[in-house]
Design brief:
alpha/beta, Type Iii Antifreeze Protein Isoform Hplc 12, eight-stranded parallel sheet, two-stranded antiparallel sheet, about 35% helix, N-acetylneuraminate synthase, N-acylneuraminate-9-phosphate synthase activity
């Protein structure tokens, strides 16, 4: 069991819908819900791709959310303007939560360093960009690496690159890079496998609907949960269809901590919380007033709650014996009575 409750990251992504006021409201919503951090993404369309209208730069027509859209146009619509970063970071500090980002090129790292970003997140599609990983790691900040689409070889290479560049605090996130992600493709059982293979803390970057999957991930050892958030799915937004609203985010905070608390230990036996219940197991009791010399029968001795008398299984050994002394109704049946 992790010594601390799961770290909850609210991913803003493009759900600011092009409004700084909405972006700041998302910071407030994350803080109000009890999240530990708000995360953004630091890129422009030009740092991610080029403006070319060719099928290789176009999402498949059948894509559930962005079918047929060109990458440049999608990233133009979804990016967080760089001059918004400072007010977003400042609002997060005011609200007592962390703000950090996923950089996508060296200029993004340069900006985030000026803002004293506390950590860096490597997005799933950038896990093979080892120079970017080394640059982030060279800052000495904690590194979070998302692993959507990645093989174990690619994950190990990314971790080795981070460590080789000086990173000492690395967290790896199990992830299914599908938007939204079907639960049956999430493969939460790989969380303990990754933990064993990498000897690192493992979290979950989750794109499924609702909070059931991330809560289940905590039971398998996830120490960090990242979920996209929006103020209201009905408002639209590039990621709103698979994002949590503020009430759902608050529920995730509560239920993930509850799942973590429930992990407990591997000890089998009564817990401290069950001590009172132990008093009310069944045992053999005298259930009618009896006199010395009367036989023990099913009418005057029964297995009832609470404890104090002989074990219920002793009934076969006491029936037909006689009472040695008088006994009032409600007396625990013990061997010295018969």
């Amino acid at each position: 069991m992790s010594p601390t409750k799961p770290y909850i990251v609210a991913e803003m992504s493009g759900n600011h819908n092009g409004s700084l006021d909405r972006a700041l409201a998302l910071v407030d919503a994350a803080a109000d819900a009890g999240a530990d951090a708000i995360k953004i993404q630091t890129y422009t369309a030009d740092t991610l791709t080029v403006d070319v209208k060719h099928p290789r730069f176009q999402l498949s027509a059948g894509h559930e959310l962005w079918g047929g859209e060109y990458l440049y146009d999608l990233y133009t619509r979804a990016h967080t303007p760089w001059d918004w970063h400072a007010p977003i970071f400042e609002r997060a500090r005011e609200r007592g939560i962390e703000a950090f980002s996923s950089p996508f090129d060296p200029t993004a790292v340069e900006l985030l360093e000026k803002l004293d970003a506390p950590r860096y997140k490597i997005a799933s599609s950038e896990i093979t960009d080892l120079p970017l990983i080394r640059l982030c790691a060279s800052t000495g900040k904690p590194i979070i690496i998302s692993t959507g689409m990645a093989t174990l070889r690619e994950i190990t290479a990314a971790v080795d690159a981070a460590r080789g560049a000086g990173a000492t605090d690395v967290t790896v996130l199990s992830c299914t890079a599908s938007y939204p992600a079907p639960p049956e493709s999430t493969n939460l059982r790989r969380i303990p496998v990754l933990a064993e293979a990498l000897r690192l803390p493992i979290g979950l970057s989750d794109h499924t609907l609702g909070i059931g999957v991330p809560v289940a991930a905590v039971a398998l050892g996830a120490v960090l949960i990242e979920k996209h958030v929006t103020l209201d799915r009905a408002d639209g937004g590039v990621d709103s269809a698979f994002s949590l609203d503020p009430a759902e985010l608050a529920a995730l905070v509560v239920e993930s901590e509850r799942a973590w608390q429930a992990l407990g230990s591997t000890a089998i036996g009564p817990t401290e919380a069950e001590k009172e219940g132990l008093r009310f197991r069944r045992s053999l009791y005298v259930v009618t007033d009896v006199r010395a010399g009367e036989p023990v029968t099913e009418a005057n001795v029964r297995s009832i709650r609470p404890t104090g008398g002989l074990e219920p299984d002793a009934i076969g050994s006491v029936l037909g014996r006689v009472f040695r002394t008088d006994a009032a109704k409600g007396t625990p049946l013990t061997w010295d009575l018969i």
